[in-house]
Amino acid sequence: MLVTAAFCVSSYAGEAAQTFDVSVEIPKLNVSEYHRPYIAVWIQDSNRKAIANIAVWYQMKDSKEGAGTKWLPDLRQWWRRSGRSLEMPVDGVSGATRPAGKHTISLPVSDSRFKVLSAGEYELIVEASREVGGREVVSIPFQWPLSDGQSMKAKGSDELGEVVLSAGSPE
Fold first, then answer.
1. pTM for the whole thing?
2. HSE, side-chain direction, 13 A CA sphere, residue 46
């Protein structure tokens, strides 16, 4: 399922943002067999080309089923656009799966991942895939560069809760 956000701006200040903040909610599911979802967060351009990987959360320890990287192709869109060309783990991008709850990624706009972005239209994509569960993709369109105070939201329906892209100044 693909969910696309409506563009909503709150407290638009007009100054250049200093941080690129992404909040991802993993909902608590009442199911008999729960596994933490694999999640990929990336930026793509208007041609749907992956420009920057923000985060990839997956099982980092080997188990009786094998290495966690074996299941990364289940993040289908991310895998086709970026994942298959990466050697995991990726410093500053990959990490362990997260429990249910809200998780925030805050990066300075001076981060090297953003240096390749020229002014224009992009999408933040968050994809989740869970063993014995479902798969979901949430998309938030945005303009680069972000302005301080800008905030856009989208909400998943099953595997993802609210996803928020906001820009701000470090406190």
1. 0.89
2. 7
pLDDT at 5: 45
- C-beta separation of 55 from 93 below 8 A: yes
pLDDT tens, position by position, 7-58: 333 334 457 789 999 999 999 999 999 999 999 999 999 999 999 999 999 9
Phi-psi sector, 101: left (phi>0), alpha (psi -120 to 50), beta:
left
Q: What is the distance between the alpha carbons of residues 30 and 32, in angstroms, rounded to a whole number?
A: 7
Q: E strands along the chain, which residues?
A: 2-4, 19-26, 38-45, 50-58, 94-96, 101-108, 120-129, 135-144, 151-155, 162-168
The token pair at 54 is 């923000």
Residue 16 has which token pair? 């250049």
